[in-house]
Amino acid sequence: MKRYLLIGFITLPILLVLMPAALVYLFAPSHESAASPHEAVQQQNKPATAGAAQSLPIKVYRTEKKVVETLPLETYIEGVVAAEMPAEFELEALKAQAMAARTYIVRRLKQGKFDDVPAGGQVLDTVAHQVYMDEAQRRARWGDQYEWKSKRIEQAVQATAGVVLTYQGEPIDATFFSTSNGFTENSNEYWEKPIPYLKSVASPWDIESPRYEETVVKSTAELEKELGVKLVQEASSNGAWYRIESRTTGNRVGKISIGGKEFSGREFREKLNLNSSSFTLELRGNQVFITTKGYGHGVGMSQWGANGMAKSGKNAEQIVKHFYQGINLQDYSQIVRA
């Protein structure tokens, strides 16, 4: 009996010392890995966000059917990501695309201007806004790969549910395009509108894109007709038949003089239907060889750049913060109410 009492007297003080430490260890938050801002947003608002995001109706005008379909937000985003980015891309790139697509529609809802959509709709399902594919269209396009591609897209969308990109508390104009020439473009050097978060940044990963460099051939007659000029060799320019007047920060053509007229790089690209405003010209007899680098307007997030960043180990948050300078990640419910 005395032995048990002795053990009790010894054990009790030890337990009194160890118990609080054990409780602190069991219930203290882990510091092993800090949550990213978008993870923090999700953890803080997850129950409300998930339900609210599904209940927020998006009215999509289906161009071919000429009807308006109402879809839950995240269902709509799945259809956009499926249409706008290859499902084979890295998961972190798909997450970045999901956030950009969600930001685009949330910005439209907040602005409340739908006069560019037939009555009753909020957004088109074409490149005029964002391309959207419904389930039937995805099944038709993907065939026997539908199951895994669908699950991959769904995983990317659910992992970022409710998260949008903001600048000074407002959803950004989250523009994106396929492939850069190695750099993105300042917004004011393509659209003549300065936007603080749409600045030129390096994107060396795009060289892996199949659309990185392409050459098209036009006859001199075609070029003259499309530009509305007459090609001449200028003696003042040592016989040159065109002159690059300026280049942009993103190494695209800023201004070009040809046939006695001056065009912006964007005008030249659009008149000739070129892949990019990053181009070179070569005259061979009565043919003009036009070599472009990149595919798209070049402003905002490069999709092939995003995929390259993901392959190099960057996560979705790092990707969007690279292509959209100075932005934050925020829950959409703080901006638009269902």
Summarize the structure in words.
Strands 2-1-3 form a three-stranded mixed sheet. It has a three-stranded antiparallel sheet with strand order 5-4-14. α4 crosses α10 (316-323). β9 and β10 (261-264) form a beta hairpin. It is an alpha+beta fold and 338 residues long. The protein is built from ten helices and 14 strands. Helix content is 39%, strand content 19%. It has two domains: 38-174 and 324-334, no CATH class; 179-299, no CATH class. The radius of gyration is 27 Å and the shape is globular.
Provide a concise account of the structure shown:
The chain is 39% helix and 19% strand.
- The succession of helices and strands, N to C, reads HHEEHHEHHEEEEHEEEHEEEHHE
Characterize the overall form.
Answer: globular
Kindly name the structural category: alpha+beta
Give the oligomeric state: single chain
Query: What is the count of structural domains?
Result: 2
Helix content: 25-40%
Strands ordered across the widest β-sheet = 2-1-3
Instruction: Tell me the Rg in angstroms.
Output: 27 Å
Largest sheet, in brief, is: 3 strands, mixed
Mean pLDDT figure? 87
Query: Which stretches are poorly predicted, pLDDT < 50 over at least 5 residues?
Result: 1-38, 40-50
First-to-last CA distance:
70 Å
Report the strand count: 14
The proportion of strand residues reads 15-25%
Number of helices: 10
